[in-house]
């Protein structure tokens, strides 16, 4: 492999994402010996910092994931010695020439490869890519660029962005990151389905009644209102994170585990999706209140959010895949901020057993007692299956129990952060977990008409109290599609 030297330049090095996710992920990879022998990390941003100042800034967010691991502080020091800083404007080629000089000085091994991580707003992607490709791309090795969403706001702007990037980069140099694809349980989805006989044959309309994909945060947009207000929850979470999970969940069996085979199948699912109807969508926005002596803000209390904003902080949509496998199965996709809990999960409700012998033990509603498979993506990663079981003892009473796989109990090793897996894949040139441009197009094609309709008609979100279960409308939507409420097993 020509992985012998890699320089990783984090453009936008002083931003939140860089500090909280990218540098810590790089350090974790270094700690675990996953980085190539010759690597350097460069921070690039506008502010004037010395290498030492950058190192101080980075060191504040480095952790060893588990405290008291061996040599943690030595390893941190060694890692920081590989970090350097270059200040410059995002649109000045001469500043990228300076970066190129600095990169060259540090590239000691053979075949220097260069990875750029654009941790900056998307309106400056093209400037950076132009300057970097003209002045700082690797002369003999590969040059790759990781870009973070938002990739545009709708079909048109996304296509424009792709076309502009492609003036300077080939598609195989662009790594569009969706960090949900790097999460352990999302990656496990295919393993669970395709390597278990008890699941694989059941994965269709014949046995599955509905699927829920849920993203819930128990905090608002505090501190990010400016960004959030021009995107809203549909663009921030649904169009990417949840839709990607849906595509992985519902795709046909790929020819192989190769990136292109998997992404071919994902695109097919996305392109088979039915246009979204406004009637099948509920939007909400959180409002403040006081509870137990504590007061919770409204979304519009944020000074960077206009006081009359109708940007949704919650959305639920019933989606359908019009193909032979999923015909008529509702996929209820829900995402919200400032709700009652923090978590992301996939819930699969199965149909009832035809002619169930124990029908009378369940009372009148058989549907209330069907199996449910829950994949808890985070926190407390777990997979559990709700089954019906006889309560031990004389007589015949049934109840619902869980077959339970709790990661913390079963696996002692800690779960790597999504960014670690994705950075490692980008360095290795593995594209399986990155979004191809046709996938992106298909995702926007699905949401653009809905977003346009919501915006043109100024459809106001339903208000829901901060920390609640979200708008009541979402519960009606679930009921309309026959989605059973959660029952604690
Ligand atoms: C980001 C969104 O992509 O994902 C944020 O922009 C959201 O709004 C975040 O908070 C959630 O990521 P995670 O990994 O903390 O669930």
From TrEMBL:
GO terms for biological process: glucose metabolic process; pentose-phosphate shunt, oxidative branch. Residues 191-482 form the Glucose-6-phosphate dehydrogenase C-terminal domain. This is Glucose-6-phosphate 1-dehydrogenase. Its EC number is 1.1.1.49. Residues 10-188 form the Glucose-6-phosphate dehydrogenase NAD-binding domain. GO terms for cellular component: chloroplast stroma. Belongs to the glucose-6-phosphate dehydrogenase family. Catalyzes the rate-limiting step of the oxidative pentose-phosphate pathway, which represents a route for the dissimilation of carbohydrates besides glycolysis. One of its GO terms (molecular function) is NADP binding. Pathway: Carbohydrate degradation; pentose phosphate pathway; D-ribulose 5-phosphate from D-glucose 6-phosphate (oxidative stage): step 1/3. Keywords: Carbohydrate metabolism, Glucose metabolism, NADP, Oxidoreductase. It catalyses: D-glucose 6-phosphate + NADP(+) = 6-phospho-D-glucono-1,5-lactone + NADPH + H(+).
């Amino acid at each position: 492999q020509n992985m012998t030297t890699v320089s990783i330049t984090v453009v936008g090095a002083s931003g939140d994402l860089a500090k909280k996710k990218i540098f810590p992920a790089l350090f974790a990879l270094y700690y675990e010996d996953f980085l190539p022998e010759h690597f350097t990390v460069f921070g690039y941003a506008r502010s004037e910092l010395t290498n030492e100042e950058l190192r101080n800034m980075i060191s504040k967010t480095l952790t060893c994931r588990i405290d008291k691991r061996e040599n943690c502080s030595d390893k941190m020091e060694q890692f920081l010695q590989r970090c350097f800083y270059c200040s410059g404007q995002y649109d000045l080629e001469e500043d990228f020439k300076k970066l190129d000089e600095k990169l060259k000085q540090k590239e000691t091994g053979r075949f220097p490869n260069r990875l750029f991580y654009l941790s900056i707003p998307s309106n400056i992607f093209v400037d950076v890519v132009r300057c970097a490709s003209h002045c700082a791309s690797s002369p003999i090795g590969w040059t790759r660029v990781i870009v973070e969403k938002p990739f545009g706001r709708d079909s048109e702007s996304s296509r424009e962005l792709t076309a502009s990037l492609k003036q300077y980069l080939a598609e195989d140099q662009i790594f569009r990151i969706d960090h949900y694809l790097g999460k352990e349980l999302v990656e496990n989805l295919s393993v669970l389905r395709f390597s278990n006989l008890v699941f694989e044959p059941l994965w269709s309309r014949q046995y599955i009644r509905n699927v829920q994909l849920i993203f819930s945060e128990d905090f608002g947009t505090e501190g990010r209102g400016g960004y959030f207000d021009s995107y809203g929850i549909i663009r921030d979470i649904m169009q990417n994170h949840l839709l990607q999970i849906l595509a992985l969940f519902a795709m046909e069996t790929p020819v192989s585990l190769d990136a292109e085979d998997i992404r071919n199948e994902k695109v097919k699912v996305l392109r088979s999706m039915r246009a979204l109807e406004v009637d099948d969508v509920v939007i909400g926005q959180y409002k403040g209140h006081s509870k137990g002596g504590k007061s919770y803000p409204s979304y519009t209390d944020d000074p960077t959010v206009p006081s009359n904003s109708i940007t949704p902080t919650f959305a639920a949509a019933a989606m359908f895949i019009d193909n032979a496998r999923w015909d008529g199965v509702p996929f209820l996709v829900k995402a919200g901020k400032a709700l009652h809990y923090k978590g992301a999960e996939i819930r699969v409700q199965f149909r009832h057993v035809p002619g169930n012998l124990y029908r009378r033990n369940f009372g009148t509603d058989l549907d209330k007692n069907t199996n449910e498979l829950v994949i808890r993506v985070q926190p407390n990663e777990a997979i559990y299956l709700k089954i019906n079981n006889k309560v031990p003892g004389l007589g015949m009473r049934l109840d619902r129990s869980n077959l339970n796989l709790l990661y913390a109990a079963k696996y002692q090793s800690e779960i790597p952060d999504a960014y670690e897996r994705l950075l490692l894949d980008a360095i290795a040139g593995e594209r399986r977990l990155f979004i191809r441009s046709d996938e992106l197009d298909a995702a926007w094609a699905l949401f653009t008409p809905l977003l346009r309709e919501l915006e043109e008609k100024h459809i106001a979100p339903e208000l829901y109290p901060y920390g609640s279960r979200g708008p009541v409308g979402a519960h009606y939507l679930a009921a309309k599609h026959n989605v059973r409420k959660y029952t604690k097993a």
